[in-house]
Every structure is written in structure tokens, then in C-alpha cells.
């Protein structure tokens, strides 16, 4: 049966009978009109000046902080995020808006000396117009914010198309943002592929986070129109553990990166590469750590691994480890939610799907490597290149021996998960397309550079 593209439905993954959203999809024409309305509102937003934009973004930060408990509870209910992670995401969301509230005061260009004669040469960055944002369900507040806040800071209007599974979160975030901004400057259009295609076909700059297949289609469509585009499309991330590492600490970090939020993060660890003598102690420590992961109701304070987002996701996770030797498996609860047990497997053939495709669930493979050079080759031998975590007590190794890693981010003695929102975020190969997100890189992406030559009307 074909998927229903005319209705937006969002369910509680811990209790699928609990429906948060059930509404008609607006369709392509309404989405295009929403972009047109945003385009009409954008000049006034830019013309209001840096102080007005800074004050508005600061007000959003304050409002998100004031509504923190409500927003965290909504994330728990709509996307099954464990409450501890939900609270941390909301705090990060407020911090993102506060960080970008300073951006309107950043220098928008530079003055250059002319090659000859008198006059001025200027470069100036200007907003594109309407930023079309397509976001996933797994970080329903942080990802829309780290896209929207820099776009707004530099003077763009924004139209956000969230994943259907996170519609309620997006609508509530929009209510908060819209209280601080002029009408039409920030709008949410719910829906699925039809609305997403319409947004890509009409926006002036496009930012996407989601699956590789959809991200590539978005990048192609935007490129054909000649509009700037960035796409973040997932990972197949490795954790490398060297023999000199703190094995217990590494196992704790890796277990959290495998099973936290049921592995539903593009930065989750799905391959664990044990170098040399690290294999046996790591196998034991990681198996013990994964078996101890609390799996259950995301509203419970102790829960680390909640439900998967849907039934199809659960079937994908179960299929990923089918037929493979299982080293450890946590206990998943019985009941109505879409739960899957965090699982560690070994002796995985090199051509197995688990080592070639992103599962987006709490399953990881333990792989041996004779030395660091082989570990780097194994890490790189996949279509993705988002993040690698490396565990070692030798800083020289971390600094000098890992330059060959073909990943956009490298985290030493830390989980593969975790994002510093003031630094560039992105990967290589199938993980990312286009410029980086976050930090100052985002301010550049949401603007274009203009070069001005100012010559005197009456040369001396």
C-alpha cells in the first residue's frame, strides 16, 4: 500500500494509540504561497536593523528557557526522547538562540585597498531571501533552531518543513518564535514529500537534514535551480579503541553512543574497532555495559534507550543483527511501544549491510584491527564519513596518527555523539553535501558575498 501523503499523523512511539497530530497536509500550492508570504515579509525584517534582530532572537532564547519543562515533555511524548536527553536538548536550543542573537552585530564584510588609483573596494554579505528548512524528527527543537537562528540573524525569512513525526514540536516551537518576530518571517508548513519538494522548488536557500536518498534528491533539485543548498545525511560512525585506552571508560562512552535515544542519531556509534590487545577486555566491558543499559519508558528519569520512532524502524533494527553472533543484548520491555534491545554483534562479514548502511538504531558491530593503520582503513571503508571517536591515553597518537581518518569530526576520549553548536558540523562522502552547519559557517551559508567598487566621480 502506498504511503498516505495527504494526511500528517504523529504518534507517541511509546504508546502508538496516543495521536498528537492528525491533520490534512497543506499541499504544494499552499507551501508555495507560504514562501511567497515569507518573501514579502523578509525586507522589513532585514530593514529593521541589527538591534531589532538581536533583540528578537534573544527573546526567543528567553521564551524557550521559560517553557523548558513543557517542551521537554512534548519531545518525550512525540518522538520518544528519554527525558534527560529531552531536557538537555531544550537547554541547548535556548543556548543556540542566545548565541546567534549576537550575530546581527558581526561585521558583514570588509574594506580592501584598490589595485590602483583612489576609491574603495568593499565586500558585503547579504541574505538570500527565504530559507527553506527541512528537518528530521530526532532533534525536534535543536536542529530547526540551529538552522533557523543563523538564517534569521543575517536577515532571511524562514519556512520550516518538519518531519511529520515531529509536527507538534515544530508547531509549538513556531508559536514561541512567532511571538518575537514580525508576521510571516518564520512559518511552519507541515507535511511530507509533496510539501518538501514545493519548498525546495521555491525557497532561495535550502538546508536539509535526513536520509541520504532524500538529501541527494534535495541537493539535485536545488542545484538545478541554482540556489545554495546543504544536506546532512547521516553516518556509519566508528569508535576506535587502542590498547592503552581506559577500557572501562571507553566502554561506557561507546555504550551510551550506541544505545542512547535508541541509536537514533546520525552521530551514533555503529562500529567498534578494537586495536590489538584491546579486543578481549573491550569485548567483555562493552558487553557488560550494553546489557546494563536501561531500556523503557522515555518519561522515566533513569531511561537511556527509549522506543524507536515507528514500527518500520523497529523491523529495520531487528533485521540488522539477524543471523549474526550476538555478544550482548539488553532487555527491551514488552508492551505497546516500538522498543528494540540494544545489541552488540561480532564476526560481521565485510559486505554485510550493517557495515554498509546506516541502521539508525541501537545495534553495533565489534571489529578487530591489528594496528591503528588497519583501524583507520576499516573506518574509512564505508560510504559515510561523519564522526569517529578515538580512545587512547597517547595524545601523540591522537594528534599525529589519525590524520588519515576521512570523517568530518574526530572526538578523542569522548562518545561519537555530542555536538558543539558554535563549531562547524558536517562530514564527508555520503554524510554531507555543501557547506558546514552551525557556528560562523552557518552565517556565511545563509548569505551571499557582494563585491562593490566605489570610484570617485571626479578622479583627482
* Helical content (DSSP H or I, runs of 4+): 25-40%
Distance between the termini: 77 Å
CA-atom Rg in angstroms: 23 Å
What's the average pLDDT?
96
What is the C-level CATH assignment of the largest domain? Answer: Alpha Beta
Instruction: Fill in the CATH topology of the largest domain.
Output: Aldehyde Dehydrogenase, Chain A, domain 1
Question: What proportion of the residues form beta strands (DSSP E)?
Answer: 15-25%
How would you describe this protein?
The protein is of the alpha/beta class and 460 residues long. The protein has helices spanning 27-47, 50-66, 68-79, 83-100, 142-153, 167-180, 193-202, 212-225, 247-259, 279-291, 311-320, 372-380, 395-400, 439-445; strands spanning 7-12, 15-24, 109-112, 120-127, 130-135, 157-162, 186-188, 205-209, 229-232, 237-241, 269-275, 326-329, 343-346, 363-369, 384-385, 387-391, 409-412, 428-429, 432-433, 447-454. The longest helix is centred in the N-terminal third of the chain and has 21 residues, at 27-47. It folds into two domains: 7-233 and 431-452, Aldehyde Dehydrogenase, Chain A, domain 1, CATH 3.40.605; 237-412, Aldehyde Dehydrogenase, Chain A, domain 2 (3-Layer(aba) Sandwich). The relative contact order is 0.14. The chain has a seven-stranded mixed β-sheet. Strands 7-6-5-8-9-19 form a six-stranded mixed β-sheet, sandwiched between helices. The radius of gyration is 23 Å and the shape is globular.
